[in-house]
Every structure is written in structure tokens, then in C-alpha cells.
Design brief:
alpha/beta; 5-stranded mixed β-sheet; elongated; TIM Barrel; 8-stranded parallel β-sheet; Sulfite Reductase Hemoprotein, domain 1; 15 strands
Length: about 350
């Protein structure tokens, strides 16, 4: 797939846009004023592979806490600001690596200029985040309803404010919970500006429904070459957002990180408890960063052939299964030892 060409910006040490890898982001759901809880959650996100993390800055106390948080984490920190320019200034002073704010909602141009001046000095980029759920009523009235063009016009208005202040370390998002709306808005904006795009489906839902919506919305755009960084928004543990984000990227061949599990849907030929075995294998290999394709197949008749692209895999049988590599059997294994044999082979490969 041919990727859209965009400017490159840096959020801390993470490059976004241009030819940089598509990065995976998340957002904490702790009270940012609770430094210990926030740091603990960010450490869990780091372990899961999160590359950039965003936190809500609701007041001056939260902005002050950013300094302590930044000192204790290893990935770039973005401050999420709404309306109050003073919180943006305080966040930059606290050492954040990026801001998420909409300059048109900050107030006077002089207030925005204070932010951009300090942001330039500290090399802090700004993400403009347009959200369908909070679109300006003026634009809704103009278009008569919520349409992609309204989201794009909102984004362009915010972008213009920053451009007039000679600030161009910008990335943009156009989030909506409606997939066709979100996809078309990004398509329209991608042709109009050179800035990197942050993809996401807002209010996507719980782990199951949110994963499906995010995979479809984000996946369509990535497959068209649109998008430079992603966040999967789920109602739940943000660590799950990171896992889903990487699965989307791995499925499209855009990132190679960690284990890709190949497993069949089971059928009447299946002679093992494939569901529990597949879940066990996935859980026990979740810590691996090296890109590997691992197969857990239900029968020895079709399994190895159907999963011949796997680096290593197992296929169940009646009492005895097999261990195979690239579709070729390397050992027969008692059924109750299949998982242990697979894990041991993976350890050898690592």
C-alpha cells in the first residue's frame, strides 16, 4: 500500500509522519492528580508496548503533577487541555512532550500566541483534535447536520490559527463514533493539509464492540495509506487499547512486533480443547516482542498445511499431536504435552 506523504514531527523521541513507523498511543483513565496511580498505569502501558501516552489536565493541580509523572516514565507524555490557556502553559513548563488542544477554543489569539511561543521554545507539538460529539453548533447549522465536510472545516479553522502564528508542528485528528463519517472526513482532510494524522474512533465501546469498530475504521484508512499514529478508544483497561492497536497494524503488515497467533475456528474433526489451548498459548507468549507467527490448529490432517506460513505451531490429534515448523512436522507429542512442547520450541527460537 502506498502511504500518504506528510510532514514529520517529533513527540519527545517518537517521530510521527513521513516515513516513521505508525505509532500506538493510549490515554490513562486515572486521576492525573494522583501521581502514583497514574505512573503505575503508564508503566503497565509501557510494558504493553505503548509508545505515547496522554493524560487529562483538568486543573492547575493536575498540570503541576505532570512534572513528577514525566520524571518517572519512559515514553512521551501528552497533556490533554480544554479551554484554559494557562493549563497549557503550565503543562509545557512541567515538561510535557506534546499538547492536545484546539486553539479556536482557547480564547483570544494573544492567548494562543503565548502557547505557541512557549511550545516552539520547548519543541512541543500540538494535536488539533476535532470530535464529532462536540462540533461547533455554528458548523452544524451551516451544514444542516453532522457531515464529514463540517469536521474538516472545523479542523481547517483550528489549523489556520496556528499557521498564522507560524506554528506548524501540528498533527490532526477527526474522531467520530460513526465509521463512514469518520473515514470520509479523514479522506477529505488528507488531501488538503500536509500534517500527520492521528487516527481513532471515539466512543468506540467496550472491548468486543470497540475492537471491531476501531479495526474497521482505523483499518480502512491505514489500508489506503492514511494515518501516522493511532489510538484505539475502549471502555476499559487502556492496556487493551495498546494490544488491539498492534493487532490492527500487524494484520495490515504495517508493524512487526510480538506474536501473531494463527488458530482455526474448530470443527467436528478437532480432537483437542482448542479454545482453551489457544487462549493459554496467547497469554503465555504475550510478553514476547520479537515478531513471530505461532499456530494452534485443531487437527493434524489439515492444520500444518493451512498454517504453513507460521514459524512454529502445534496441531492436535487423538491422544497424540504434532509440533511443526513452516508446515513441516518436526515431532510427535502426547496431547497433554503439546503446549509445553510449543513453548519450549519458541524459547529455542528466541
Amino acid at each position: 500500500m502506498k502511504r500518504r506523504i506528510s510532514n514529520t514531527i517529533h513527540v519527545g523521541k517518537v517521530a510521527i509522519g513521513g516515513k516513521a513507523p505508525i505509532s500506538v498511543q493510549s490515554m490513562t483513565n486515572t486521576d492525573t492528580r494522583d501521581v502514583a496511580a497514574t505512573v503505575q498505569q503508564i508503566h503497565r502501558l509501557e510494558k504493553a508496548g505503548c509508545e505515547i501516552v496522554r493524560v487529562a489536565v483538568v486543573d492547575s493541580e493536575a498540570a503541576a503533577a505532570l512534572k513528577k509523572i514525566r520524571e518517572r516514565i519512559n515514553i512521551p507524555l501528552i497533556a490533554d487541555i480544554h479551554f484554559d490557556y494557562r493549563l497549557a502553559l503550565q503543562a509545557i513548563e512541567s515538561g510535557v512532550d506534546g499538547l492536545r488542544l484546539n486553539p479556536g477554543n482557547i480564547g483570544s489569539k494573544e492567548k494562543v500566541k503565548l502557547i505557541t511561543t512557549l511550545a516552539k521554545e520547548r519543541s512541543v507539538p500540538i494535536r488539533i483534535g476535532v470530535n464529532a460529539g462536540s462540533l461547533d453548533k455554528r458548523l452544524l447549522a451551516k451544514y444542516g447536520r453532522l457531515v464529514p465536510e463540517a469536521l474538516v472545516e472545523s479542523a481547517l479553522e483550528h489549523i489556520t490559527i496556528l499557521e498564522e502564528l507560524q506554528f506548524n508542528a501540528i498533527k490532526v485528528s477527526l474522531k467520530a463514533s460513526d465509521i463512514p463519517l469518520m473515514v470520509e472526513a479523514y479522506r477529505l482532510l488528507a488531501d488538503k493539509v500536509p500534517y500527520p494524522l492521528h487516527l481513532g474512533v471515539t466512543e468506540a465501546g467496550t472491548l468486543k464492540s470497540g475492537t471491531v469498530k476501531s479495526a474497521v475504521g482505523i483499518g480502512i484508512l491505514l489500508a489506503e495509506g492514511i494515518g501516522d499514529t493511532i489510538r484505539v478508544s475502549l471502555t476499559g483497561d487502556p492496556v487493551e487499547e495498546v494490544a488491539v492497536g498492534y493487532e490492527i497494524l500487524k494484520t495490515l503488515g504495517l508493524r512487526k512486533k510480538g506474536v501473531e497467533l494463527i488458530s482455526c475456528p474448530t470443527c467436528g474433526r478437532c480432537g483437542i480443547d482448542l479454545i482453551s489451548i489457544a487462549n493459554e498459548v496467547e497469554e503465555k507468549l504475550a510478553h514476547i516482542d520479537k515478531p513471530l507467527k505461532i499456530a494452534v490448529m485443531g487437527c493434524v490432517v489439515n492444520g500444518p498445511g493451512e498454517a504453513r506460513e507460521a514459524d512454529v505451531g502445534i496441531a492436535g490429534g487423538k491422544g497424540v499431536g504434532i509440533l511443526f515448523k513452516k508446515g513441516e512436522m518436526i515431532a510427535k507429542v502426547p496431547q497433554e504435552q503439546l503446549v509445553q512442547a510449543l513453548l519450549a520450541e519458541v524459547e529455542k527460537m528466541l
